[in-house]
Queue: 2 jobs
Job 1
Amino acid sequence: MTVLDSTITQRIDAMRPHFPTEQALLIPLLHEIQGKAGWISRDAMQEAASYLHLPLSKVLEVVTFYTMFNTKPVGKKHIQVCTNVACFLRGADQLVASLEKRLGVHAGETTADQRYTLSEVECLAACGTAPCMQVNDDYHENLTEESLKTLMDKFDQEFQ
Amino acid sequence: MTKKLLTRYNNTPGSHTLAFYQSVNGYQALEKALAMTPDAVIDEVKKSNLRGRGGAGFPTGMKWSFMPKAPVDAEGKPKPKFLVCNADEGEPGTFKDRLLMTQHPHQLVEGMIIAGHAIGATRGYIYIRGEFVHETRRVEAAIEEARAAGFLGAKVMGKEWSFDLCVYRGAGAYICGEETALLNSLEGKRGEPRLKPPFPAQVGAFGMPTCVNNVETFCSVPTIIAGGAEAFASLGTERSGGTRLFCVSGHIEKPGVYELPINITLPELIAHCGGVLGGRKLKAVIPGGASAPMLRADEIEVAMDFDSLAKAGTMAGSGGVIIIDETACIVEVAARLLKFYEHESCGQCSQCREGSHWLARMFDRIERGGGTEDDLNMIAEICSNMAGQTICAFADAVTGPALSTIRKFRSEFEEHVRLGRCPCKHEGHAYPHSQIHHASARL
Ligand SMILES: Cc1cc2nc3c(=O)[nH]c(=O)nc-3n(C[C@H](O)[C@H](O)[C@H](O)COP(=O)(O)O)c2cc1C
Ligand code: FES
């Protein structure tokens, strides 16, 4: 099964006139792939390499450099809690602890039902509304134990 | 009441739209700038004393004047010039560019078009950190509106000059905020900083002369052109014009982004934000993003402008002010910061790669009670092998929190060593559960 479809290639082709090189389209293409598949498999890297006429090694080099690119599958909801200093000062570690307890996984792991992956991440540039976390594309800020519980209950319901 | 230049229309519904922006005189500065020569625009920005808001505080007008006027390649063909906006906003404690892009994206677009005119660029890129999905959409929508209105594209406002903007998303790497790493990332490569010289003004994006500025820097440009350089300069100090967006976080009653005079004092700033959280006692302040050396509570009588903070042995950096109260353990805070640097070192230079790793391990060991007196003495030695020894300023940044904490709070470190545990980890401590996670906590 190929991951590159016409929606993706059209978006990339639309960006092409803005850039003098093909390689500049690599990171946008990887974002598109991950947006669709949730992660970037070796096969997907090969497809990206062929599409942009780059050697696979160039793609690998880039994928492995950037934290946001997942090289293994993640849960449908990727919960990324900021544990950098401002969030830490406002209790981020307790949020991680209660998420670990609720989900039954450690930070860095995915639940057995593939619904959730829990990660600790560095500063999300939302320190004024700490503690905060990002779930897929969305930020959740000014979190408390209660608001976290409400949010997680809502996510659970979405899976019902 | 402080004069607000960049955030006057905060929280105004629709402030991100072109219709709103034009209803408050948006794009009139562009019209004025296009009637001026590029050199006149650069002179105006020089006179305004605008200094870059990305961290280094470099004079913006001077940076623009470093751009070659009519560069040619080896065959004598003219080379394009590029403009780049640094919207990577990765310095821990900094969250102002996010606000500017969400609420006032046209201010950024207008500032970039004026800058493009001043340096004679044909194209601009806005490099936005990958996590900012919604912010990216806002900026893209603003670009589209501006293009439809004739402010971007072929013949900007009917003039013989074409200029367009394009958004580029980062993918989670703090180092890509460093301008040459950013340029590599923009070219679709690993975000590893480049050796300077050549500087980006000579060899920048895709080998072409390039000028890189921060979001807030560009956002200040329309108000300089519209209101005049003198008005802008007069709001600041002799060497640094305008207002500044301070991002205040940590143990503070009212965290947030505050646009204030650039030379407000730190105690005034803390008071302005409602004081220390819960009325507790202040212990320390990180005044300019995670890389800025910490100030102890008895050192905070200082103005927040670039020069005053430099004189106080720290830096104004990115405007990220992190307040730390008496309930925090400084060793634990420092360990947290060093874990960040260990994770984010790009690994290119061995001093930085190894040094960040060593420091992170040592601070963590000390925090958990396994440190020795030798560890305490070795911190400064490791730092001296890092600062100024590498391709970019990341290694210097690491030494900011490492050296300032061990020097200014040595007794707290010594107590950890003596007790063989963190003295703050007892019942009644504000955050008794906090502990450093080790296992590879990220994917
Ligand atoms: C490690 C490191 C990280 C940086 N991160 C950022 C950043 O996130 N945003 C930014 O605008 N500048 C950042 N900078 C500063 C840029 O290199 C550059 O000086 C700045 O974008 C220039 O813009 P200005 O002149 O408008 O300040 C960083 C520098 C270093 C050394
Ligand atoms: S420290 Fe958590 S968002 Fe900045």
Job 2
Amino acid sequence: MSDVAEKRSAREESAVGRSLENLKAAPRRFTETVFRSGRPHSDRTRSTFVFGNVFLHLHPVRTHRWSLRWSATWGLGIAAISCFFVLLVTGVLLMFYYKPYPDVAYLSIKDIHFVVPTGRFMRNIHRWSGNIMVVIVLLHMARVFYTAAYRSPREFNWVIGMGLLMATLGLSFTGYLLPWDQLAYWAITIGANIAQSPRELTDALGITEWFDVGGLQKLILLGAEEVGEEALIRFYLFHVMILPLILVILVTVHFWRIRKDGGLARPIDADNRLGPSSGDVYPVFTEAAQKTYSLAAVVKGKTPIVGHGPEQTIPSMPHLLIGEAAVFMLTIALSVILAIFLDAPLKELANPAVPENPAKAPWYFLGLQELVSHSAFMGGIGIPLIVLIGLGLIPYLDRETEGSGLWFGGLGGRSLVIRSAIFGLAAVVAVEAFVIRFGWIRQWWPNTPQMIITFINSGTLLTFLYATYSVWCLRKYNSTRAGALALFTCFVCGFVVLTVVGTYFRGPNWDFYWSPSQWPGH
Amino acid sequence: MTTDAKPTQTSRSRLDPEAMPRRDFLGLTAWWSAAATLLFGFLGAMRLPKAAVLPSPSKKFRITLPASLAPGQPYLPAGRSVALYKEESQVYAISLVCTHLGCIVKATDSGFDCPCHGSKFAKDGSVLKGPAPKALPWREVKHLSGDNFFVDEGKSVPAGTTAGV
Ligand code: HEM
Ligand code: FES
């Protein structure tokens, strides 16, 4: 034995020596314990990488090629969750300085805007991705609807999605009050009174004294009779705690369900439509599937993959993850670019004695505000409730299978959608034009009882026209899907036109103006 | 274990057992009482956010009307949402909170205009135009002495009720 070797083995035997060796190996071992399957360079290790990671394992190990085409989803769901992530980070940063107390809140936003390093930038990002998130969630819903992706077995995920839409709108609405400026104060005053508007109905029936849902709703929302410190702390609590929690829980169920429902919806003949696989896709099972899944024995009903191999699927890592990362980066880029060029608005300090004129809600509620300007109860509660119930029922009424997973799939298809869009636009423009030009019942007969105006106003008239048209389509095509296509398209048109009118064509006293430059006193 | 030991079981599989054996009655009762307890606990906890005492400042106040107040001219006490009028020797108060969605209306020559959704009210508060479902309510006024009056913004009185000087 040579001297050197002897020394070395002596060192290895001493505990100190072994510790030193282990210390040297520590970085490598650390990496190995974090990524137990080693570097993901084969399909197999990539799969283990996905399902061995708590953050990634909501993903399937393999993804169908159909679902990875851009036109299948336009990445909208991932864009929505990306927005939420951006909002979470910037929101927590804003919380370092924001103080939820009247007047002080306004000053702290001013501090954030003018003094805090990067404060204005973070606030802008928070504001714009909040807006982008609303748009994207709405677009995502439209995508799911038009590709008939809500059908069995995905009905419940559609319902969860509606919960997500409401959580998103709720977050926006509660966030709107926090700056405590004039814009915020009056938008929330109106919002809270919309919550109280069932009184319009109970008053007309003369039962408010015994049965006052409206008053109760407003009381719970504001904790007081007017928007004040109680309301601010409640909105703050909802905005930073309750609603984000609800949203996270709902999102988790949403994603979990997508996997349990067998991935994204795709047409039955998706494989044929896709054509032969390209080079990087190869059959997983070279022979007829031999494998039986032990879980599949317990689960009842159709399970997605028993019986044939997932031929047209490719490993989620990297194909799906790359797509997701791209959408994530694009979403961030969009809100950062907006934040660089556009500052989030901040008006004067809230003044409970003088309303803004016009006092406008956030843009996505201006369609509602337009309806509310005809009847508070119908516009703010009645019609939204009808729309929500209608949306929730869609997957339970439409039990057809034709065209699932295809854009504008189902009877009627694209041409029906185009015709419905024309009808929907024409109807809403006609009704609005009539009301703006000729006024409504109260101007003609000032003594008309409120009940009549609550039930007959431009909002209910429009709802009636849309409903009639879609029932007509339903019968013509003898298909629920056709009726749903017509109704949803009309609803989208109505929403867009009312929002545009409320945003651009309403000035002081909610009067109609062709452009803000004609507003008096400006 | 032989199959004929339990002949009734042959049609059932391990995964599809008998629906609900009677001895599970106690189990069911336990589940339901747990659920009911949680539900009532939750409802009880939800009593908390419904405030018992509202933090609003008092709606009653005293006011001295300026002697120069012209008939039909509104007097607007600062920080209050009510307009006071003096006509001959009668004084009355009309709420300025729009009955539609709670904006503060502006007193104009023709009556009151709401900036939010275009409701218009006549001089006596009744609705002329727009979405407001009800007339602006009149508020209680009491004469104290001279030009001093007591107003209760929280108390409505029938339209036309005035306080004599
Ligand atoms: C979907 C998610 C969210 C949306 C749509 C949203 C929307 C908004 C909006 C519209 C404002 C008013 C911003 C302004 O005027 O600058 C706001 C403010 C705020 N948000 Fe969020 N938010 C979301 C999530 C969060 C989260 C998760 C947190 C924290 C955990 C948060 C914390 C805050 C704080 C502290 C403010 C006050 C600062 C300010 O007004 O600029 N937000 N949010
Ligand atoms: S609040 Fe006055 S018209 Fe709407």
